[in-house]
Amino acid sequence: MTGLLYLAALLVSLGGLTLLDWRHRIAVFAEPRRALLTIAAGIVVFLLWDAAGIGLGIFFRGDGPYMTGVLLAPELPLEELFFLALLVYQTLLLWRWLERRRERREKP
Asked: Which of 14, 27, 91, 99 has the most beta carbons within 10 angstroms of its beta carbon?
């Protein structure tokens, strides 16, 4: 059962970001198509980065009791996909929030 803890933590965190986004209409709930394309593009870029690192022997899959053990590719655990989604989504939310904050300060 502990093999699902990291994935569960990632999913809970993604859920929290989604609730925050829904409540304040920051990204996906403000402009769904644009935000989802941005998130998908970010995930693809980081997956390519991971693939390059794995191919060069720089990145390795960690062995921990909290990982599911499911691999999407050699040395690429399932959790990495959800981690990248979390990373990109939270960055998008932060960027949009800071943008809104700046716009409010510039209004007379």
From this structure: 27
Low-confidence spans in the chain with pLDDT less than 70: 1
Residue 9 and residue 83 in contact, taking contact as beta carbons nearer than 8 Å: no
Angle at 37 between CA 33 and CA 38, to 5 degrees: 115
| Separation CA 73–CA 54 (nearest Å) | 10
The vertex-16 CA angle with 14 and 33, nearest 5°, equals: 60
pLDDT 10s digits, 74-97: 999 999 999 999 999 999 999 999
Provide φ and ψ at 72, rounded to 5°.
Answer: -85, -30
CB 68 within 8 A of CB 7: yes
